[in-house]
Amino acid sequence: MYKTVIVERGVREINELKKLLLESSPKIDLIGSVINMDSAFKLIKDTEPELVLIDIAMPKGENFKLLEKLSPFKFEVIFFSNSINASNKAINFMPIGLLLKPLILKDFQLVIQKAVDKISDKHIHRQMQILLSTLKTTQLVNSQKIAVPTVEGFLFLELYEIVRCEANGAYTIIFTSTKQRIVTSKNIKEYEAILPSSQFFRIHNSHLVNINRMLKYNKGRGGTVTMEDGTEIEVASRRRAEFLGMFQ
I want to staple 49 with a disulfide (CB 3.0 to 4.6 A). Which of 5, 30, 133, 189 is the partner? Predict the structure, then answer.
């Protein structure tokens, strides 16, 4: 249930919105409705709603003053207006929608669903961030697994499965011993910090390798290494001494 607050000009308008909300989404939890800006400020500060429905035509621009006073805010905003020439200032608050009165149920439901979807996405993102933060502090202390963030969620890999990591802009591609090619949203520097240095070495700006998955080292200016998957990777000349020092 997503906490919602109504800020309107009168009781009749509030009752109309309440009725529309009941017909629009079971995920909306109306926790309060007010017509006074001071009361609105206190209600929003005290309850921390996720959605605020507010009339643009409040006297003296009090609605905008309210939002400016609350800024930066985390809730989503839906505006209502009696005029098609609604104030451009509303756009500054990045509303989910701006509906023209009299309100039409179908249009109202579409905007409410849009708000519900966005709030839901924010919840999922927040939960993923908490999970990722927790995993960062525990994954290499209590196990030999790593949590890899992907588009679908998280993939849990045993460290020994990772053959190499290759930078791809802000992303990293992880290649595994089971022939998986996993695109993940972390950059390679983050994996260099997470993975144990006794097992993984960044031989080049673009490559982090599992030294237990190397087949051979080939001499040269910096040299190259051949990995179990057949890939030959250049060793940066400035990293050569440190790299070879691991085996002496």
Answer: 5
Query: Do residues 246 and 225 lie in contact, with contact meaning Cβ atoms separated by under 8 Å?
Result: no
What lies within 8 Å, CB to CB, of 70 at 6+ separation is 41, 44, 45
CB 225 within 8 A of CB 216: yes
Least confident of 107-116, 205-214, 215-224, 226-235: 215-224
| pLDDT given for residue 126 in this prediction | 65
Structural domains of the chain sorted by starting position, each given as residue range(s) with its CATH number in brackets: 2-125 (3.40.50.2300), 143-245 (2.40.50.1020)
Pairing of strands 51-55, 76-81: parallel
pLDDT tens digits for range 28-85 = 999 998 888 888 899 999 999 999 999 887 766 777 888 888 888 888 889 888 766 6
How many Cβ atoms are within 10 Å of 23's Cβ, its own excluded?
10
| Contact of 119 with 50, CB cutoff 8 Å | yes
| Strands across the sheet containing 207-210 | 181-184, 171-176, 162-168, 207-210, 200-204
